[in-house]
Amino acid sequence: MQRLVNREQDEEFIFALLNHARDIGFTSTNIDLIYGLPKQTPESFAFTLKRVTELNPDRLSVL
Asked: Which residues cross the membrane (predicted)?
């Protein structure tokens, strides 16, 4: 799905990046999600949302 819109971001990398940011002192985190991507289903978006909430961001935007 991400490949279709040229926005590939590996889940493992995102988790590591956010955790590293916190480790070095970032006190506020934000994650933006895009809804309605090609081939996205309600189920796939629900899975993404579940994984993102595990990161416990301070803000979550759904565009």
From this structure: none
- Do residues 40 and 1 lie in contact, with contact meaning Cβ atoms separated by under 8 Å? yes
What's the rounded Cα separation, in Å, for the pair 63 and 61?
6
In the chain, domain spans: 3-62
Per-residue tens of pLDDT for the chain, all 63 residues: 555 555 567 889 999 999 999 999 999 999 999 888 888 999 999 999 999 999 999 999 998
The pTM assigned to this predicted structure is 0.72
